[in-house]
Amino acid sequence: MSRLANKTAIITGGAGSIGAVTARKFLDYGAKVVLVDLSEEALKQTVKELNSKEVDYIVADVTKSADVERYVKEAVKRLGKIDIFFNNAGIEGVVKPITDYPEEVFDKVIAVNVKGVWLGCKYVLPEMSDGGSIIITSSVAGVMGSPGTSAYNTSKHATIGIMRSVALEAAPRKIRVNTVNPSPVDNRMMRSLEDGFSNGHGEEAKKELEKSIPFGRYAQPSEIADTVVFLASDDSKFVSGTLHLVDGASQA
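Request: output the structure for the sequence above.
Response:
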């Protein structure tokens, strides 16, 4: 309970699987949480399932600076301060070779996964408590390539660049900035990608992807959340500017 006692947190992509499971763990460890996402219906359902008086939500589009500035100001008003920022919102795009990849989908993936992360850091950092923690969701796709996902891979490489720059800028205030880099996670996003890799044969695609992971399976959202909790807590008080693979030895 005391690991995050008296801490406050913003989680973008708060209605998604990793965001919601991380929120549950933050709450269990004593934090107060504000969830940010695009769908009010999904946010309301997540808050209902979390069933805690210490969680609230704000509807916002992370790609729009006015929305980001608004959710940050509103979160400070509701929480009183910001100690933890889980900069987690992201989308997968489609699976197509670069020669066929729709430009408008590329733009959307970059807007959410890169600009959204950048804007979050831009507006949260001035309001964050000294000694706080920013955790950015990247991916194993941020350290490797894969065919058909050029936009997603590009975006997740870019988040590592943002992290490394902001970690140095925030260091004088002892604010830590790190990425968490999951391998495939057993959630909605992977169902979408599996179908993209093998249209109509997603289950077969899943089995092939699992074979590429030395542990022989996908990560669970809770396993990603465990690493985020470590990075959010004072247990990581001298850890900054680093990426944290949660990948079942995929990059060993």
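The first strand starts at residue 8 and ends at 12.
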